[in-house]
Amino acid sequence: MRSPHPTYEQLVDLPAYAEQPVPIAFEDVNGHLNVRHYTGIASEGLDESLVELGIPQNWPVLGHACFSAEHHLTYLAELRTGDTMSARVRLLGRSERAAHALVYLLDDSHQQLSFVMEEVFLHIDMETRRTAPWPADVAAALDERVAADAALPWEADVSGSMGLR
User: Fold this and answer.
1) Domain holding 100: CATH number?
2) Burial of 160: CB neighbours in 10 Å, binned 0-12, 13-18, 19+
3) pLDDT tens per residue across span 28-60
4) Among 33, 63, 79, 138, which is most exposed with the fewest C-beta within 10 angstroms?
């Protein structure tokens, strides 16, 4: 059974990433953020959150990368042009070559949860373009964040459709 989504009040205490207003260029014919941008902004927020764990934006230049393997997307409330949004990240787990995360897009203008992206992402050796074990320092930092996020006082609202193997 799926856990209920955390509230805005629970999520707002997590570090904010990809903070920005919804630009006019991202609006679709329905007058709200186009679906492709929800995922892009959530992904940007996840990327920003990984920098402090030793995964810089230029990691491919250093021979490593993170590739997305699987997503589950849930749209809860529309974001409209001009609304201020932010991404919040909860890491759920790590295996030798993969990690599992939840990324929440908050509508900070209306103080509500707008979108949830559950993702499994992989560590890639860019020379072989195949999965590879996480570097030891990154693995340790991921483990530390997973442990800290596991201590949050609310359940992770996973879809049940994916996980680490």
Assistant:
1) 3.10.129.10
2) exposed
3) 998 899 999 999 999 999 999 999 999 999 999
4) 63
What is the spatial distance between Cα 23 and Cα 79, in angstroms, rounded to a whole number? Answer: 10
φ and ψ of 58, to 5 deg = -95, 20
In a domain, 156, yes or no: no
* Number of folded domains that form the chain: 1
- The CA–CA distances, whole Å, from 87 to 18, 128, 131 equal 6, 32, 27
Distance, in Å, from the CA atom of 16 to the CA atom of 104, rounded to the nearest integer, reads: 10
User: Residue 47 sits in which domain range?
Assistant: 8-150
Both tokens of residue 101?
A: 């995360």
Is the pLDDT assigned to residue 1 strictly greater than 60?
Answer: no
Residue 22 inside a domain? The answer is yes
Q: What is the pTM of this model?
A: 0.95
Cα 60 versus chain centre, distance: 19
Residue 160 lies in a domain: no
Task: Tell me how far the alpha carbon of residue 40 is from its chain's centroid.
Answer: 10
The residues facing 88 across adjacent strands are: 104
